[in-house]
């Protein structure tokens, strides 16, 4: 799987962030997607997709695509549920992969809000699970694939122990009512420029 990582362009290679406003430009989706399609045609990748794309960006891509994106990889977890984006992608046959399903603690943008969420902790305690397992199970039950990261062997094992049980309708309803807040902001990494702030509002 070969992905466009962010819907923007840098005019030069960078070694650190944030970046100067002058090297930041909107993505020329037509030429970039044509290059992605050529990679697939040449057999350099099995499939192509995007990451951090909104419905508008996907619509723009689909309008010029001969090969539609197979995947849109986005931040998704119980505290950023991406309901409208999931509905759009389902209607268009674009699979969603969820990154930061546990809140990306330890990154520039992440924190402990998932594993320390009271509702998830209550459900976990009642089920004999961890709040991380409840979060991963919720994401899995939405029909998306998961990118979870851990260097801890015990937590890696726990992350795989989500397939032999299900959340109840009541538990799903409680999770659906959680306040929503995006964790990953492009502006927090690339810099607070007009383009990045506009993208953060959209995705």
TrEMBL record:
Enumerate the InterPro entries for this protein. Answer: AKR (IPR020471), Aldo/ket_reductase_CS (IPR018170), NAD(P)_OxRdtase_dom_sf (IPR036812), NADP_OxRdtase_dom (IPR023210)
- Which residue spans traverse the membrane? none
Which residue range or ranges hold the NADP-dependent oxidoreductase domain? Answer: 18-177
* A GO molecular function held by the record: oxidoreductase activity
A matching Pfam family: Aldo_ket_red
Q: Which SUPFAM superfamilies match?
A: NAD(P)-linked oxidoreductase
Write down the PANTHER family for this protein, in alphabetical order.
ALDO/KETO REDUCTASE
Protein name according to UniProt: NADP-dependent oxidoreductase domain-containing protein
Give the organism the record lists: Vitis rotundifolia
Taxonomic lineage is:
Eukaryota, Viridiplantae, Streptophyta, Embryophyta, Tracheophyta
């Amino acid at each position: 799987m070969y992905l466009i990582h962010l819907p923007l362009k840098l005019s030069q290679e960078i070694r650190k962030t944030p970046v100067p406003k002058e090297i930041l430009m909107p993505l020329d989706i037509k030429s970039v997607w044509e290059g992605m399609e050529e990679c697939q045609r040449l057999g350099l990748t099995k499939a192509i997709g995007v990451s951090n794309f909104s419905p508008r960006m996907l619509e723009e891509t689909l309008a010029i695509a001969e090969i539609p994106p197979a995947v849109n990889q986005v931040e998704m977890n119980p505290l950023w549920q991406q309901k409208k984006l999931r509905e759009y992608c389902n209607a268009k046959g674009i699979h969603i992969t969820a990154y930061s399903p546990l809140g990306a603690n330890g990154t520039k943008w992440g924190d402990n809000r998932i594993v320390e969420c009271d509702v998830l902790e209550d459900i976990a305690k009642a089920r004999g699970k961890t709040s991380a397992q409840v979060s991963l199970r919720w994401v899995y039950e939405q029909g998306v694939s998961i990118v979870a990261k851990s260097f801890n062997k015990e937590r890696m094992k726990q992350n795989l122990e989500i397939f032999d049980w299900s959340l109840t309708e009541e538990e799903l309803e409680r999770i659906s009512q959680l306040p929503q807040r995006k964790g990953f902001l492009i502006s927090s990494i690339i810099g607070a420029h007009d383009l990045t702030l506009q993208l953060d509002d959209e995705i």
